[in-house]
Amino acid sequence: MSMDTIELIATAPMGLEAVVAREVRELGYDQVTTENGRVTFKGDLLAIARANLWLRTADRVLVKMGQFEARTFDDLFEGVKALPWPDWIPEDAEFPVEGRSHKSQLSSVPACQGIVKKAVVEKMKLTYGTEWFRETGGRYVIEVALLNDIATITLDTTGPGLHKRGYRKLVTEAPLKETMAAAMVLLSRWQAERPLYDPFCGSGTIPVEAAMIGWNIAPGLRRTFNSEGWPVIPQELWEQARDEAYDLVKDDVPLQIMGSDIDPEAIKVAEASAKAAGLAKELRLEVLPVSKIQTRGDYGCIITNPPYGERLGDAREAERAVRQLGSIYAQLPTWSAFILSPGKQLEHYMGRPSDKKRKLFNGRIECNLYQYFAPGGLYGWLRDGGKSPEA
Question: For residue 152, what are the domain limits?
């Protein structure tokens, strides 16, 4: 495997593959293939650092070590053994194996993990001339994924999932993942010059992610990744990628981002997250019932994940809150709204059908992103001098 052209996989939550692919292309990598749950692209060692630092909506970044048909354990063993493990994994590395299998003859995941581990050890014995590996060094998580008897073997460069940005120390009940919050903002085509309001902000994830997007802050800047300690990726490449990211921050852009929630504890958590992200002064966060919210400005976006029983205590209260949002939204002719909900009645409660629905999964919960476009919303804003989202 040439280190100048590495095949990488950005894993994606179901329904967000196209968003992840767009992010990858915006990083400058145009050899992109999209499949269920994954976006494959080609890059170099620097691409590993850039993708980990910048991808807002992906779960993790994997090196695709190889892919081959594996109907028997011998097929799996020989296929894995043929891969260039010593190019990536040093002698003292810790290299656990994870696995999954779907619609394949090799259906025992523990057995497949054992075979892969044995094959990697055999290959490394040839290079390092030792019978025993201490596994006290850096962490290299190998995964074997079997689908329709095709084995895809990967190496995880990320470690803890990319949604762990580092700013959220506390959580509320049923928190929205950072990656999903970022996806909602990106799908809205909101831009920093426009107002944004989350009337059910909970722990503040949507406002914080929006501010990071508005200021072009790479979401991975405040954390580390498993592959930062890998000898195969020179430290200067990580330094280059981080320097690039710092240079691209646009913290001189004034933001109009507001969030509110009826729960005072949730707002405390939101304020702590905003402070940890370095954005406390940029966000307006308030304890308010949805009936009392007041938007500011024109051509704004409501982007929110309303409670559906859990956070407010019961379904009737949650229904009332969404009905109140519908009443307020009806009085905002230039605003658009993007509402993530698993409820089938949301359009009824809002008092009008959405203009577009997109199926997304918040964790394992199937939801729809209900999209309401104001008649004069984005287009009116463009007419009045705003910049195109594609600019």
Answer: 6-156
Nearest 5°: CA angle at 28, between 177 and 144? 55
CATH of the domain at 357: 3.40.50.150
**pLDDT tens column, 33-92:** 999 999 999 999 999 999 999 999 999 999 999 999 999 999 999 999 999 999 999 999
Residue 60 lies in a domain: yes
Contact 367, 340 (CB under 8 A): yes
Task: Check which CATH number belongs to the domain holding 67 and give it.
Answer: 3.30.2130.30
Report the alpha-carbon distance of residue 1 to residue 62 in Å, rounded: 15
Q: Is the dihedral of CA 92, 98, 103, 107 positive or negative?
A: positive
Gyration radius of the chain's alpha carbons: 23
- Do residues 106 and 207 share a domain? no
Number of domains in the chain: 2
Its pTM stands at 0.93
Rounded-to-10 torsion of CA 122, 123, 125, 126? 130
pLDDT digits (tens, 9 = 90+) for 191-233: 999 999 999 999 999 999 999 999 999 999 999 999 998 999 9
Same domain (yes/no): 131, 201: no
Whether 345 and 257 map to the same domain: the answer is: yes
The verdict on 204 and 340 lying in the same domain is yes
Q: How far is CA 264 from the centre of its chain?
A: 27
Long-range contacts of the stretch 236-245 (C-beta < 8 A, 24+): 237/45, 237/46, 237/49, 238/49, 240/46, 240/49, 241/46, 241/49, 241/50, 241/53, 242/49, 242/53, 244/50, 245/53, 245/54, 245/217, 245/218, 245/221
- The SS3 call for residue 199 is coil
- Residue 313 and residue 369 share a domain: yes
Within a domain: 19: yes
Task: Count CA atoms closer than 13 A to 347's CA, side-chain side.
Answer: 12
